[in-house]
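Closing statement on the CU-O-CU linkage sub-project.
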Amino acid sequence: MASLQSSFTVLATKPTPNPRLSQLRARRSMVSCSTSNGGRVDRRNMLLGLGGLYGASSLVPGRTARADPLLPPDLSTCDPEGAYIPERLNPDGTVNTPAIQLDVNCCPPYTDTITDYELPLFSQPRTRPAAHRMTPEYLEKYEEAIRRMKQLDEDDPNDPRGFTQQANIHCAYCNGPYDQVGHPGVDIQVHNSWIFFPFHRWYLYFFERICGELIGDPTFALPYWNWDHPDGMHLPAPFSVGYSPLYDCNRDQRHFGNAIVSLLPGRPGAIETNLNQMKEEMINQSVSAITFMGKNYRAGDPPPGPARRGTSERGSHGGVHVWTGNPKNPFNENLGNFYSAGRDPIFYCHHANVDRMWTIWESLPADYIKAINDPDYLDAAFLFYDEKKNLVRVKVRDCVDYKALGYVYEYSDIKPWLNYTPPRREVPANVQELTKTAQAATQAFPSTVAETITVVVPKPAKGRADEVLVLESIVTDSTELIAFDIFVNDDKNSTDEAVSPEFAGSFSQVPHRSRTAETPSDLTIVLKELYKNINIADEDDFVVVTIIPRINGEAVTIGGIKIVPLAAAT
Ligand code: C2O
């Protein structure tokens, strides 16, 4: 009870915009099965005030004139309350409280000795196996590693290798407790940009080495959740066993067993939908390094908005987060919210496959250069604790060659999605007819996606030109789970089919906290394959776009919509 009290004290120091909330707070109850560390109070909750509450977001500076790589955080200024998830009232008056409400402080232990990390030599790379093919012996290794990490939570909560500390790293880099050095009031955010892949690669690298260290096996490699292959499109079996350390009750209970994962956020899982999604994000929509990796993010930039993500991050990556998290929890914990995602042991297997997608994308032939050579990308830096508890600084440039990091992936066939062909239609839609129920794009925006939006959008060229659909200036409530889908010339209401020729793409957001307003972002969708699939008529110089809300469409605003030539958008 002492822990409850002190956490309430912390909460009480926050300004409370809604007086009903504070009344409700006193009566709130824990979400059942809510925490892996049971509401243990973190000593750093007591440090309130030391970290300081930073000024209003109006202090956010504009872009620095000189381009700069993102700097690593200053751990001494980590704000213990920075990742705090605000409570909200539901329309029915009930209160929404984070499932892991007592411990959203995710500041790491403080050390003032930082060394530049040097990649150790290795003789044999570690091989990351596909989780659904793990042998019982291999499974036992990952179980034992997680068991020992969780034991460290109990034995020494300040050991940076403990499970909660490891999970907190993710929270710290995406939920607001760090300001960028030299830019007070501007959060560090490792999602929604080109540093997404490298940050998570380093994060898994150290997590994997810590696992190996704790079980005394330097060859240990993280299993990957092979969700891009039909055989791996379900929660790997060992993770559903109630007494296993790999079990997490903060998952969608309907998705244990054989339920098919959904790589398309907000849509029911189906193999065909998933294969189509993989082909789209790995090939059709990846028309430059930036479209796959994510857009730029430099020192001083406000946190990027979600449409700055690359195709993989916004697709399968987000889909698996959303599908796994528990929609009955107030903030979709665990996997469905960035503050809590690292508390589910499946996170590391999910992200191993995300990382594998980066390696596969690099190996696929394309007519553009796969590397990003901008020094602001290559020199972006992060801090991690290594397996010996040393605080180390790493740079993006040192992880772009994953083989130098000493691991490889066990082979798994990618042909199911590589060779996937979506359904195509013979007869083009009658666009004149469709426009009767549509508004002109110029009149319809800005608009939320609370309701279906149907608009007529002019094309710069006729028929099957190389063009891109742009949903401009998307602004979201970052704390909300959001998903909507986009269809083009859908004259037969095919919006619930697993894959329809008219399906153009989707937008989604995994909820997270952002103290600084995120940069409004443009979602771009390459239309080349879609024009083929819908067999667009040669003379058509406009299309009808339908935007269908899937989850919380009222929490997102689209500023405008247009079609531009591909060259103008990449
Ligand atoms: Cu940092 Cu999948 O999230």
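Residues 170, 174, 191, 200, 317, 321, 338, 341, 351 surround CU-O-CU linkage (CB under 6 Å). With this model delivered, the sub-project is considered complete and its resources will be redirected to Aim 3.
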